[in-house]
Amino acid sequence: MAEQSTSSNLIITDAVLNQSPVINDAENVTINYTQPPSTSSSDEDEWNSVIKLKKLCISYLEKEGELLHLQGVIVISTLASHFYHKMRRKFNERNSMRKLMDLCISYLEIEGKFCLQGVSAKEEIPVVHPAIHEINYYGKDKVPVVERYDPKGQNELFKDKIKKVVRFRDLLDQKDKFISIVASAGSGKTVLSLRLAKAFSLLQRLCIHLKFMDANYEQPLTLRQLLLDNMFPGHSEEFYTSCFSWMQKNADKIVLILDGLDQAQYSLEKISPKINYNACVPVKDLVFNLCTKHFFRNSLLIITSRPHAVLYLPEVARPQVTYALGDLSLEDTKELFLAFADEDLWTKIKKSSSQMLSMCRNSLMLQMIISSNIHLSEDIGDVSTPTRLFATVMKNLTYSRNFQFPETMDELTRKLQVLAFAATKHGKVVLTAKELRDGGVDPTTIHDIVVQLHCHRHPISSRFLEGNTKFFFCHQTFQEHLTASYVVYEMPLGEFQDFIETSLFQEHWTVVRRFVCGVLFDLESKAVSGDLQMKKEILKKHVIQQLEFISEKYMNSGQKHGVGTKALTDKLFDLYACVGEGKDSSIATKAAEYFPTTILLPRLMNSNLVPGFLYVMKHVTKQLDWLSLGYCNLDANSFHEIASVIKEMKPGQIGEMKIQGNYLQPSNIDDVIGLLRVVRDELWMGLCFIDDDGMRRDADLDERNQLQSALNKIQTGLEVYVDLDTTLHTQK
């Protein structure tokens, strides 16, 4: 007799599905259930079946690597094989296979890193990986009602939540039973999950990798159907029974990786009942029981997701540990960049638009930037701001692969602008299939809009939208750019004026505001007339008013003494970012006129804020009493950009300057020397350099000698505070 219980008005049976296919379109499939025969399996049968299952899992991983153009998995296999043959003579048959595999993984960690966005398996490419941070983020945080739009980037979201930095190797040695890996679009969640699956397989674990988007079944399933029958169709009932029996007995040898929680069409917001292994229930109930460790208690469960989706899990089903993927290092960024393009393009971008290099540290954005610049002439100034970058990418979409779509890209773009504005206005990052249909967009064809490029060395392609029942733009910035385009080109003039006066300068519209300024102010050299010209004048008037108002409040706030000024600092530097995005010199001149004489950069100086700040600084002619870059977490590249502008200012134009507490490289000593003629009274620079272990340090003896030599060559009363005990000044 079939066991029955009730959950969400559904009759639960122990029926199973015979050889059902993997289902991508859950709305249009019918599953026929059949009663399984009563069978039992021996230990030997189970083990033989599991060996076969492991081979199927590895075959799946390698197939996914090829289909997704993800080279990392294949590189790992190649490196491990190379290392095995290199080391096997040092091992005999009595040596532990686990020990050998441990050395393989250690070798991978030392000799190569992980490729986030790869290419053809036939080509050799560098292996790089993102930063991995253990964070304290979810805990008992309030569950959001919808997938919320947040104008802050992921780095800002997690910077005050980081507990420690970890290595890929640490993820393979988990003591916890349930972990999550979160990251924004394009950061490498899926690729990292595939690499983990491959590595766990090398470590003799049974690792099943399942994408949520491939498991959006509307019909109820058993756990076996979800993990085995549907994942690996076409095998015998005895095979599935033996494998599942072994899994229940050996949970400590199992790793389950569920990729892309944000792509699930169901919500896990409500607590599901505990069920047995044979219950046939909605997929959300199976996932919930996996998360609470009711199933496979001693297994390792790994879920990847965009950050907001994990908050849907009730507290009892939250991960024990969460890891956030950060940016690529600058060195890895360059290495990956050169795999797709040549060094000439890297040099051109670094010279003409170094802001783009900081954006390249997200793998998806790196692809977009190469796509927009690869075929341009020697002068790449046309793609020197994020606004120009995304405008170029949108233009490139006109030439993208576009199957079955009945309209032009321009017509589609106008519809997406309306949808993006509505989503951003209501604080959402998700478009449902119904919303797309209501907006005149066919959700079954939108998948075929692909950002595609044939570079000098490797092809690059990324989907414009992700999802099958819930749709995300491949990067949130696309939603923001389309929203800004709607405001500029489609919003009626009267509504536009009201929007500027009541909404645009609120924090919610931070990134959209920059794009609106970038589009309208950048129309200076073009023939602008009618409503568009009036919109430009309206926006210009309000930006200048905001600059004057915020600058005056900033000056009156006692900034030098740190009296409650963080919010004002953020507003001021965001306005500078808007000015830099539009590159309107008349607005920059006004911003320089209102520029505070004592100013402190934000403690978390985002690299995207640097270009706007510098664009304004180039127009500053007044005397500055005090400028602090102290403890702003500036890296070597950002500091170099800032110093390059400051050293062109008039001698003695800055009274006191602080640069301590940053992350400068030894090469930045030349930048510091360039400041000596501009700073008049005091330069504070303790703990501004970084050592080989990533720790802050004071200037070493050689750097101090270089500073002293430079001071002796100029006539100045400047005192340089190298550390708490050492002061340099001109020696006569």
UniProtKB/TrEMBL annotation:
<keyword id="KW-0677">Repeat</keyword>
<dbReference type="InterPro" id="IPR027417">
    <property type="entry name" value="P-loop_NTPase"/>
</dbReference>
<keyword id="KW-0433">Leucine-rich repeat</keyword>
<feature type="domain" description="NACHT">
    <location>
        <begin position="184"/>
        <end position="340"/>
    </location>
</feature>
<dbReference type="InterPro" id="IPR007111">
    <property type="entry name" value="NACHT_NTPase"/>
</dbReference>
<protein>
    <recommendedName>
        <fullName>NACHT domain-containing protein</fullName>
    </recommendedName>
</protein>
<dbReference type="InterPro" id="IPR051261">
    <property type="entry name" value="NLR"/>
</dbReference>
<dbReference type="Pfam" id="PF05729">
    <property type="entry name" value="NACHT"/>
</dbReference>
